[in-house]
Design a protein that fits this description.
With 631 residues, this protein is mainly α. The protein folds into three domains: 89 residues, no CATH class; 201 residues, no CATH class; 204 residues, no CATH class. Helices cover 60% and strands 1% of the residues. Helix 8 runs antiparallel to helix 9. InterPro entries: Wax_synthase. Keywords: Membrane, Transmembrane, Transmembrane helix. This is Wax synthase domain-containing protein. One of its GO terms (biological process) is lipid metabolic process.
């Protein structure tokens, strides 16, 4: 071997070593790059990006830090939420910890709220849509716990755990349901202020478990703020985990597959009818296919939520149960702590997280509704009940009470009205203010408040999925700006280039007018999606707002019909010779066809207004992602 060959070999060896060293350094810095840079293709970007998803120009790709910071700050603030023992912590230390707690809460609120407005998930409209739900719910929940409900701190229920009661809990009837009769006697669903509660956590392990449990509890199961559909007695408790998994796998999963398959075929049909995929609209389908499209979308979402919640609960609750046992074992190792002794004996947290007693997301069958109100209050999930209550029901009902009071003053009937006690429903004064709302007064305010809050949150999510674009079918009956509007905007100093592009989009939409007009009959032209306000995300807000109006209208008509029936029955009984006070039972006021009319009305409202909802999902491509058309 010559000297030249040795030099070439040494050079090659040096180059190979340099490559290995470079690869090792890249492996070392990869974690730092992921934390510093936006989420890369290998982390969250789907292998088949959604071609219909166009993010807003002002938004940036979601990074790992911006995704982790809001829940992390929220969790750390929850760890510091329970009061500290005055005997173990000085006044200065408690004030410092309190300042840190509220600072973390404020950071969490700001970062949560920024998610749907400043960020997007590259290539996925569905995940970007979730940013709106997570941001609004997370920010609203943190604001509720740390500021609106302060100084009231959420408390966990203390379930009795003596030997006799443990045996009762383990007993099952012939259907496999648990029969814990002691809970029925101790915890009534109507008043959650008289329940027995655990003491506030004291040790570090207890605080960590407390914060984690509170963070993932949306319905308040095992907490003092439990939603009305969660009753801590034996009635709503569900079959064991094995039966829950069987229900999820053998009932919900085939139901979900069938609905998604139908929706997939309808999406392909809608895309095939439109030559321009960007302007595909539900209005391009015939009326009967639009009905099928909305129905398939709703059933798919119902089955997807129910399947996911049931499956995750059946697998995750045993883990929470073991975690609770571990926390209690750690508490037993510190018997000197007086605050811990209340939790050290038999565990109280285990029963609250027993999978056999964990309420399902939808304890009532999908076909059990008899009206539009019963569908939204009993059939659909109530995961966001607390947010709708605090930011929708309470303020709008209080406004409705003030409005009724004002008109009563004008008519001179104010003395007959009860005084308005807004402080009684303030979150700081009651763990679940919905339980103390006056029934029968300004009920329309409660209904509209819940639907308006839901509409705002879903509109923000839809806007994030659309990237700020409009989701409106051609032709649109409201969105038709003229040249006069353009000239007026120019004189006011607004950007002419913006309005030029705005009107160019209008001309593109108008180009598809003929095709859309010929796609369906004259009856099918009357689509509510054609009158949605020209605001990004207004489709879903319109859907929820119109459903709220329909529920109020349904209640008014129902009350009118029942009153007419009551008067007719009383008149008939008096004609038969009845004297004195005549009472009419609820059964006498009900006819066999009432439920049929209610179901037809509910399905018609949901199907017709649902076109406003699915329009944005078609335009953003969420339906393609949901039905796996992008694979």
């Amino acid at each position: 071997m010559t000297v030249m060959d040795q030099a070439v070999g040494a050079t090659r060896q040096w180059v190979a070593n340099a490559k290995l060293q470079s690869q090792s350094q890249s492996q070392v810095w990869r974690v730092a790059d992921v934390l510093r840079d936006p989420i890369t293709h290998n982390v969250l970007i789907p292998p088949h990006p959604n071609p219909h998803f166009i993010p807003a120009e002002a938004s940036v790709p979601l990074s790992v830090i911006t995704a982790i910071l809001p829940p992390l700050a929220y969790y750390l603030a929850l760890v510091l939420l329970p009061p500290f023992d005055e005997a173990r912590h000085s006044s200065l230390a408690r004030r410092a910890l309190s300042a840190i707690k509220f600072t973390l809460a404020a950071i969490s609120i700001v970062t949560f709220v920024r998610l749907p407005f400043a960020y997007h998930v590259p290539g996925s409209a569905t995940l970007s849509y979730q940013l709106g739900l997570i941001g609004c719910y997370g920010g609203g929940r943190v604001l509720d716990i740390f500021f609106l409900s302060w100084p009231r701190v959420p408390r966990r229920l203390a379930f009795p755990q003596d030997e006799r009661q443990r045996r009762e809990v383990e007993m099952k009837d012939e259907r496999g349901r648990a029969e814990p009769s002691h809970h029925k006697e101790r915890y009534f669903h109507s008043d959650n202020t008289t329940w027995q509660f655990q003491p506030h956590p004291a040790g570090v392990s207890q605080r960590l478990w407390y914060a984690f449990d509170l963070m993932i509890s949306m319905r308040g199961i095992g907490w003092d703020f439990a939603t009305p559909d969660v009753r801590h007695d034996r009635h709503p408790w569900q079959p064991p985990s094995t039966r829950q998994l069987q229900r999820a796998i053998f009932k919900l999963l085939p139901f979900l597959a069938l609905s998604l398959g139908t929706l997939r075929w309808l999406v392909q049909t809608a895309r095939a009818r439109s030559q321009d995929l960007e302007h595909t609209s539900i209005a391009s389908l015939p009326a009967y296919q639009r009905f099928q499209f909305v129905l398939a979308t709703g059933i798919s979402l119902y089955a997807l939520f129910d399947f996911g919640y049931t499956f995750v609960s059946a697998l995750g609750i045993p883990f929470l149960k073991r975690s609770a046992i571990l926390v209690d074992q750690l508490s037993d190792s510190h018997p000197s702590d007086s605050a811990t002794k209340g939790l050290a004996a038999p565990t109280h947290a285990v029963s609250a997280h027993n999978v056999d007693f964990f309420p399902l997301l939808n304890p009532i069958s999908f076909l059990a509704f008899s009206s539009l109100r019963s569908f939204w209050s009993k059939i659909w999930h109530r995961l966001f009940h607390r947010v709708w209550l605090i930011y929708g029901v309470l303020p709008v009902q209080n406004f409705a009470l003030l409005l009724e009071r004002f008109f009563a003053l004008l008519t001179g009937a104010a003395s007959e009205k009860k005084p308005i006690n807004i402080s009684a429903t303030w979150p700081a004064n009651h763990p679940d203010p919905g339980r103390v709302l006056e029934r029968g007064r300004a009920d329309w305010g409660k209904v509209m408040g819940a639907f308006i809050a839901s509409g705002v949150v879903h509109a923000i999510s839809e806007r994030c999925a659309l990237g700020g674009r409009l989701a409106q079918p051609p032709p649109h009956h409201i969105h038709a700006p003229s040249a006069g509007v353009f000239r007026k905007a120019t004189r006011m100093g607004q950007s002419a280039s913006f309005w030029t592009s705005f009107l160019s989009r209008e001309r593109q939409i108008t180009a598809h007018r003929v095709e859309a007009e010929q796609a369906f009959t004259s009856l099918g032209k009357w689509s509510l999606s054609r009158i949605v306000p020209p605001i990004s995300g207004a489709g879903e807000f319109t859907f929820f707002f119109l459903n709220g109006v329909a529920v109020c209208l349904e209640g008014a008509i129902s009350n009118f019909v029942r009153e007419r029936r009551r008067r007719s029955i009383i008149a008939c009984k008096r004609a038969q010779g009845h004297q004195g006070n005549i009472e009419v039972s609820k059964a006498e006021l009900t006819q066999w066809y009432d439920s049929i009319i209610g179901v037809v009305w509910a399905v018609a409202v949901l199907a017709y207004t649902g076109e406003c909802f699915v329009e944005g999902w078609i335009r953003s491509g969420i339906v393609e992602e949901l039905t796996f058309l992008l694979l």
